[in-house]
């Protein structure tokens, strides 16, 4: 009888070992040593040679963990769909509301704080009073950004125009075809610097700041990739390396406490 018990225990032990091995293998199969990014090609942020503000942050987070960063370029909507359909692992600079609407996951910490600004000729708004000044005015932005649906602008009726991402809203402003255009500060600042925009003629006015995330596909491997992201981002914040990357790529508006502010809307530094 004792011999049968011994045999039975051995069988149970072997079965448990096999199941445990299969569990580890399943986890290993779910987790990849590559994180594949789908993104628009943004000047200063995501370059074809793998440089840029976003790419450098991701490499500093993932490469020390043995995870290689790969990428492909597509417009905003296609990038979102690639991640949604699990043809890519993640997409940078996505607001939580957009991630939720697309069924994507976001980590606890944002990738960066995206400040949204309005750009206009000073003579058009001599008495600028913030976003309410846009009421009833003609405003342009890039297709897919849907600023009129965002809480800070929701309910403000504007005559809006959307242009493709290869369009040039500055030309529309210069020709007085629109009163203002709305875009992220990171892109506007870069254009102002590289095109020597006359700031006596044009004004860049802040509207709001919002946490922008690395949004992940809704699949099991994303859980570990998100965990690696949060741990790596916390490390970059604590070491001061994230602030240095902001300085290197001339991304204005950094202050570490913004990553800890509650909610999604972030105020400028007090």
From TrEMBL:
Residues 49-249 form the Solute-binding protein family 3/N-terminal domain. It holds the Pfam family SBP_bac_3. Keywords: Signal. Residues 1-28 form the signal peptide. InterPro entries: Solute-binding_3/MltF_N (IPR001638). SUPFAM superfamilies: Periplasmic binding protein-like II (SSF53850). It comes from the Bacteria. The keyword Ribosomal protein does not apply. This is ABC-type amino acid transport substrate-binding protein.
């Amino acid at each position: 009888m004792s011999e049968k018990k011994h045999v039975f225990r051995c069988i149970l032990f072997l079965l448990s070992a096999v199941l445990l091995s299969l569990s580890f293998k399943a986890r290993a199969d779910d987790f990849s040593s590559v994180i594949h990014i789908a993104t628009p090609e943004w000047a200063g942020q995501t370059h074809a040679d793998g440089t840029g503000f976003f790419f450098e942050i991701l490499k500093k987070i993932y490469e020390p963990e043995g995870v290689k960063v790969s990428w492909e370029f597509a417009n905003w909507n296609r990038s979102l769909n690639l991640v949604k359909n699990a043809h890519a692992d993640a997409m940078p600079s996505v607001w939580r509301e957009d991630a939720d609407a697309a069924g994507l996951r976001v980590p606890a910490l944002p990738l960066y704080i995206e400040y949204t600004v309005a750009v206009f000729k000073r003579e058009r708004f001599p008495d600028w009073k913030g976003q309410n000044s846009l009421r009833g005015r003609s405003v342009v932005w890039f297709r897919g950004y849907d600023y009129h649906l965002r809480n800070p602008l929701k309910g403000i009726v504007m005559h809006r125009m959307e242009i493709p991402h290869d369009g040039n809203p500055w030309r529309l402003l210069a020709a007085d075809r629109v009163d203002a255009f709305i875009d992220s500060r990171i892109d506007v600042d870069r254009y102002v610097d590289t095109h020597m925009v006359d700031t006596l003629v044009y004004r860049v006015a802040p509207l709001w700041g919002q946490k922008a995330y690395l949004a992940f596909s809704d699949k099991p491997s994303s859980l570990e990739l998100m965990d690696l992201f949060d741990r790596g981002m916390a490390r970059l914040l604590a070491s001061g390396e994230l602030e240095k990357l902001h300085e290197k790529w001339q991304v204005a508006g950094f202050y570490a406490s913004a990553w800890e502010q509650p909610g999604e809307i972030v105020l400028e530094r007090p």
